[in-house]
Amino acid sequence: MDNTHSNNSNNSGQEQRPEGIVIAEDLLGQCYQLLWELEEFRTFLTERRKEQIVDIRQFHNSVRSELKSLERLSRADPTAERTVHTLRSSNLQFYTAVWDAAKASTGLVTFNKRFYWATPPTRSSKRAGRPRKQCALVDIVTQGGLEWVKVSTVTETRLLFEQVKAGWENADSSSDDNGSSDNDEDGATNHSPPASSSPSSSPSPSDNPIELLRVATDLQTASLATQIRYRHPKIRIVLPKIPTTPSPQTLGILNALIATGATLQVGPSLSPFSPGLSSSQSNPTLVRPELSTIFAKLLPNPHVSLTPTLNIDCTILLALISDLSHSPQTPHSPSHHKAITRQIELEARDHLLPQCLYPALEGRNLVCTTEAATRMREIVEQIGTKSERARAELLLDESDDNENEDAVIHSLPSLLSLFASHSEYDVPSTLRLPILVTPAPIPDLLQQLPPVAHTIADQLSAINRSVFLYGWARGISTVSSNRAVAKVVEEMVTDK
Description:
With 496 residues, this protein is of the alpha/beta class.
């Protein structure tokens, strides 16, 4: 009897642990895990010198601040109502949902970035009492900038409450709306950005009483005002607390979100949601890959959008034959121009061909314009070394029947072997040499392009005109290191 009484007392003691202690321990464990994964990813980026390309500093600092807050709360009075309420209102739930959504993405760029559809406010305009910012807050920028992800930890209960408040016809006023807890309120208030105003020329989404719809409309407005590599970013909205089979009462809101142009993911497994999708179709088995596999997918991949045929600029032709590109240890010389010295240093660190150019070019048909090939040969004739002249002879195919750049030309093994004999790097077996030289008749190309192309052509040199207009008219990617010209073309196209 005594032992039984003792065991019951222990169990009772365990059951009576203050709620604040239980919540704090659980949140701290989750936060330590989240921070550890972020630290691992930061190390992963640093080892690959990608920390300047993938920016996680702000998100990482936010999680660290949340950890400090939780640690302070864990030392507070666990029985105090204020302590328990503050713990329940922690932003950790939101940060975890954002990181989970990021891990399910590719080509991560940054977190927590604002995009404007009007001129960003200046200090003077703020002092003058300018209306609120015309912008949208994006939680995660992925796919090299071409996808914006918005995460909301709103619950079905909260959505139903907002529907009732908004007077939606399909809202069930007898739903569990009076059970809208403090946690739901905090989730909607703390975990979603304030609604932004819309431009005066478009409908007024800011009048929509349902915050999630206001946010989705603002995101779409900002997307239409933004172009990344000539395309508008896509919107993905992640709702991890909405079940994969939502209640009929919330379908109206979900369909309205889709109507803004966004795609939706729901549930803890981030299942895709679309009208008419059944539960069995939308609830795949959750597979958790290794972090190293996830991290590799998060690295930017500049080659994803490249076309099967590539248009090679003269700058890249020269890089493919240059002695500096084919050796990681080119000796320094006092006679070298400082730009050459810098290129030697970069090659020793980054290896242009095997790490950058070959991965972009291999497996694709390669063409260049007659003007680009002619300019490359002129430079080789003037200052090319013996090995550079040899590579130039192997690089190009200038026979008369190369007007069809869509022809699939596979490199002869002997040609690749000869090219590799003049290099200290391995040449991929899928590199399709020789590069086909094709004419670029400017009048014919301009007839295939929009009127702005005439304005752009007037701003370009003869060689750049042939290269960039050819790729544009043929609908193929142009590979160039001439950033100045590429920027001019992009600005003139997007500002047209």
